[in-house]
Amino acid sequence: MTRTGELASTTTVREADQHHGADSPAAPSRHPVRTEEDLLSVRHAVRAATLSAGFSIIDQTRVVTAASELARNAYIHGGGGTLAIDHLTRHGTAGLRLTIRDDGPGISDLDRAFTDGFTTGAGLGHGLGGARRLMDEFEVHSEPGAGTTVIAVRWASR
Amino acid sequence: MNGRPSNGVPILRLGDVLVTGLLNELDDKSAVAFTDELTTRISTDGARGVLVDISRLEIIDSFVARTLMELTTMARLLGARVIVAGMRPPVAITLVELGLQLDGVETALNAELGMAALGWYQSAQPPQGGGRDTDR
Amino acid sequence: MLSSAEAAARRRISSALRAEADDIADRWVQLQLDRGALGKQVSEVELREEADDLVAALTSGLDSDIPVENLVATHQELRQAVSELSLRRARAGAPPTGTSLAVLYLKEALLEAVQRQTRDGDELFTSALLVNRLLDTAGALSFETYVEGREEIIRRQSRQLLEVSTPVVRLWRHVLAVPLIGTLDTARTQVVMENLLQAIQENEAQIAIIDITGVPTVDTAVAQHLLQTVNAVRLMGADCVISGIRPPIAQTIAQLGIDLSTILTRATLADALTAAVKLTEDSSAQADPRDAR
After folding, report:
1. Running DSSP on this structure, what letter comes out for residue B13?
2. What local confidence, expressed as pLDDT, does residue A28 receive?
3. Helix, strand, or coil (residue B61)
């Protein structure tokens, strides 16, 4: 997990995009997270992406669940945002990167936000910490007043 | 009593057991409406048991988990026992990794075993008839 | 100045590739066969196909405006041709040095073709530098991909080994057992959990016995994984018995402060089976659970 300001986080994402852009088997897709219906569409989109990446049923379930947590976070705490799905390849292993951005108030205390049981809205307060456990790589970039970006990657386990 | 719009999730009554199931396409509003309707039905029908079949759920996130836990607590307060049946293996693994144990929620492998745990057998008479040991 | 000379050399190599694609490919195959770097793992027909692919990829790569240093890394077709060649050899069991040397032999084939096109010393020298820079990166990528390819094979084999080393057996009606033997790590407990849950669903099992008699040590991570497995099994509506906790492991668990108190444990697999059978009989005899209250 890294903690940087808005500016730094934008750079990280762009570099990553370029780096993986060359060998991405499928085009990245972007989905709005503005309404409750969007939460369902996001799940469908992520499920489809895990299928095309050849993830096992358990990895599919992990990634879709994490996406659901993160999208709901963005919808409830961030006042809505977007979710981008990118296909990755590393050493011949397929991966998926979810990038969830919102323009909400940001998270002022990230350590607390990762603590199980911490919540400022609906849900069990397992959202951020739980999603992190389901993914292989997890980064949060947030600053009070400047929104939150979560970048989470999962690699196919076989 | 059923003035509210239905959320599309059917709730059946078998004796004093209510049988229902959650669908994959359940959105947050429907989940809340479902909890409301089920709570009302437990009270109006005088149900003693509730079977919630979740074998069609492809994921359970913290919201659905909370819905199931609240449902169980509310039902218990109204005197009914809830059994959640048919969780798929990948869903169970993910839920555990997510850090959720569904504390207090009773589970069964499938709807049939769940109904049996609630006192219902395939050949059974009404539950108060005491179908004990007859099929052994 | 240098860059214009370089551009000319690049055009020269390009035109040599275009004019003599077949000859270059033939020569490269010949060089690889003569020097025997590959052993017998790759057939001549395969070598020829690879050569055609790589020569075509080089031609289109040199036509792009990507600098030579980055060409192999960024040109999709070229990168793919080099990677596929190396992966195929890794899978065929060819030696690693032979694989990357083979890529470097292409320098000779290519420079010979350039030499047939021009006798100008300066131009040949610049071309040689360019070919070196280009194919050295290809050699490096080849080596890297080869190693990744071997690692992938090792991962796949250890995964397969995991599958066979963690069998789930049916011991009784509604009772399953997983006898674990050897060291438990995260990957292995993961496979155990997946296989066990699947088997529980398929067999409608009510009790799963996890026997750890053959497990030498248990650390915090493994104990946590065992706990997770038990929790997942319970979420599905079944339960677990852990058997075969030997005294040193019991000691470790106690010292680590891991709470296994909610889990039914038995000393031996036989004891666990007795307990499991009793549990399943109790639950099916219990017609109306409300009576039990």
Report:
1. E
2. 80
3. coil
Q: A–B: how many Cβ contacts below 8 A?
A: 68
Question: Is C79 within 8 Å of A58 when comparing Cβ atoms?
Answer: no
Question: Using one digit for the tens of pLDDT, what is the confidence trace for C154-172?
Answer: 877 777 776 666 788 898 8
B59 to A64: CB separation less than 8 angstroms, yes or no: yes
Which residues make Cβ contacts (< 8 Å) with residue B83, sequence separation at least 6?
Answer: B49, B50, B51, B52, B106, B107, B108, B114, B117, B118
**Does C292 score more than 60 pLDDT?**
no
* CB–CB contact A91 C194 (8 Å): no
Q: Is A54 left (phi over 0), alpha (psi -120 to 50) or beta?
A: left
Amino acid sitting at position C90? A
Least confident of A41-55, A56-70, A121-135, C174-188: A121-135
A27 has a pLDDT exceeding 80: no
B96 contacts on A by Cβ (under 8 Å): none
Q: Rounded to the nearest 5°, which phi and psi values hold at A19?
A: -60, -45
Domain boundaries, chain B: 15-119
Homologous superfamily (CATH) of B15-119 is STAS domain (3.30.750.24)
CA nearest to C174 within chain B? B109
Does C168 touch chain B if contact means CB atoms closer than 8 Å?
no
Tell me if chain B has a CB within 8 Å of the CB of A126.
yes
- Most C CBs within 10 Å: which of B60, B113, B135, as the mutation test of the C interface? B113
Q: How confident is the model at residue C97 (pLDDT cuts 50, 70, 90)?
A: confident
**Is CATH 3.30.360.10 correct for A6-20+27-155?**
no
Min Cα separation A2/chain B (Å)? 21
> What is the pLDDT of chain A when averaged over all its residues?
77
Of the residues A61, A62, A68, A75, the best mutation for testing chain B's interface (the one with the most B CB atoms within 10 Å of its CB) is: A61
C residues 71-110 near A, CB within 8 Å? Answer: 74, 76, 79, 87
Domains belonging to chain C, first-starting first, are 2-157 (1.10.490), 169-286 (3.30.750.24)
> Is any Cβ of chain A less than 8 angstroms from the Cβ of B133?
no
**DSSP-assigned states of every residue in C176-243:** EEEEEES---HHHHHHHHHHHHHHHHHHT-SEEEEEEEE-----HHHHHHHHHHHHHHHHHT-EEEEE
C-beta atoms surrounding C199 within 10 Å: 19
pLDDT at C164: 66
